[in-house]
Amino acid sequence: MESKLAHHVIAGEGRPPWYKADGQNCDCYVVGIAGGSASGKTSVAQRIIKNLNVPWVVLLSMDSFYRDLNDQEQEVAARNDYDFDSPDSYDYDILLETITKLKEGKKVDVPIYDFETHKRLTNKHTTVYGANVIIFEGIFGLYDKKVLDMMDLKVFVDTDVDICLARRIKRDVAERGFDVPGVLQLYKRFVKPSYDNYVYPTKKNADVVIPRGLENLVAIDLLTKHIQRQLQERKMQSRWDMARINPPEELPSNVIVLDKTKQIMGMHTIIRDINTSRHDFIFYADRLATLVIERALNELPYHSRVVTTPTDNTVQGLALRPHIGGVSILRAGGTMENGLRRVIRDAVIGKILIQTDPSNGEPQLHYCKLPPSIQNFSTTDSSHHTNSNNNDSNNSQQNDTFIFLMDAVIGTGAAGLMAIRVLLDHGIPENRIIFLSFLAGPQGLHMISHAFPSVKIVTSFVDRTLNPDTLFLEPGLGNFGDRYFGTESD
Prior knowledge:
490 residues; alpha/beta; Rossmann fold; 7-stranded mixed β-sheet; 17 helices; 18 strands; 22% strand; elongated; ATP-binding; kinase; EC 2.7.1.48; transferase
């Protein structure tokens, strides 16, 4: 039989990140969909997602949570004698943990199951950062009591068993390498008894029953409207709403703005001038980035150090205590990397790609590559006392790491909020993050400070005249990344 991975679909890139870190303010809506094998559960779920037309939806398949088989069970599975349609074939602990974290708005690593080895892949998974809506589908989607208790809406897809059998034959022959007699044998031995004994009885747990599956468009559309009403009542906040918030006149206490000197104003005049050449733009952007980073260094802890001068005198001085890591929010955040390297020679730099969905203004996480000192941050505390002296030194350095999060412009703050959430999910304490930017709008500063008050923000200029309706275009600067790095036409 061909190597097949468990079917799982991730629609969307995660929920908006402006929730409380403890998950208390998460209004995630969970929909469970159950039904017989090949009844059309996945098709119904995908139709609901299409009809909803909202960002941050996660479609989670129960097939991702099959239990790892031991050697004896693998031998049985190799003979096509293992009952994958039994409730005991799933790992409900991992399933419950995954849904719990998603509902709390936390990062999860959804496992990928390989039907050839009958194990979850050890070094492959799908990372998801929460959702506004979780749609969980599987034959036992309404079976486990603890999972049921987490659902806001429970749906059973009730399709005629003969239609299900015909679909299963077509699917297993075309996609899983079975022959027709083999499919019928498994259906008779395992699938049909499991449906009669376990799956069909869960129909009583459903709030809504959809006969005929995807063919019943009326029922699906009514169900979609109900979910939309529930989301509206929970007042899901979008980036457009954030942009129109009237911020207070006074800036938050954790925001640090460079003094408005003639030098700072002169450089801002140059980089905001449409007639400035790209060569000059890069030069003055690098100078400005250096000043922002140097100001941020004043917020870090230093320790006393005595040094001997070339004239054999001793001087009482200061030495920077922590290790510095930089994380750029691509593409514009990369414009501050040269300034960081000028000031901190050994700084390690990671990258996060967050782009705005033009249809709704929501930030979407597309790429995340963090250096080891950041990725391993959350594991250093537990391993610190068990490693060798050399490793202890490395762990001590990682535990003393501060992160400079870099973006050219803070508009509404949505991209920054998501980037901070990613760092927190990798174990970086909130008070170890310092957000750096060239330019910031009051809306974004207040939004980030409200969500993460321990994160310090250092910017060279606050523009109170930014138009909330055009914040996404980096007003007054054009596209900062394009002006700095150039475009294909340059």
